[in-house]
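ok so I'm stuck.
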Amino acid sequence: MIDAVVRRLLIDLQAPIERHWCDGDAFRTALFNALSMSFPVGEQFFLDSVRNGFKALPAERQEPFRETVQVFIGQEATHRHLHGLFNQHLERQGLVNHWGPRAQSRLKLLAGADVRHALAITAANEHFTAILADWLLEHPQAVASRDERLSTLWLWHSAEESEHKATAFDLYVALGGNTDWRLKWFRRITWVFIADLTRQTLHNLWRDGSLFRPSTWRSAARTLFGRDGLVRQTRGPWRAYLRASFHPNDLHTARAAHWLSNHAQRYTPVKPVTA
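replied:
not stuck anymore, here's the structure
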């Protein structure tokens, strides 16, 4: 059970951001910009999926989920809003978001489908964001920036993703979702996520003029495949989802709780929305 807290982040995203805001590193900037480009569409889908899954439960079974669903919706709506503001800066820098519209088009194919499919897709994506979040909280230098607003944005987002990582999964199970479909969607979403992230990152680098610089690819190798690299460090948690007995709470949230406790001055709690 997560704490029933929706937080308002105390940063102002109106001021411009540097082109290479991620500590001057073109690759890491392009990678995290790509992820941000996916968030408004993705998070709207996630909160709609969880809301619809909650409503699909019989009334007598809704109460144990009510608080966690309210927090999930409130947190994801806040993430969607702030990354929407962040993405406006990227547009002004000349970057083009291809991932968001492509994802929007795909998601339309689910119209009228069983709500469990949307929940399984959401649970898969929430697993990706949870393991990325934990990696970021362990390696905050990955989003180090002279602009403290941006480091705060990414680490706060990571902490909240760790908090609510089980919500869609638990609703899927409560609605009778089976392991076979959970794993089918997870494998499909894995390939879609990797392909979309790669395409958008490369496009960002091309628009930025950094695609063919040797320093870009040295950073890519270090960030992804170095001793503490993202791919190397998250392979184990990724594989954990394939176990029939897996539950998101098998992955610890100590780093998230630690960050939130140590940075309480950077946010204020607000009342969660009604599911």
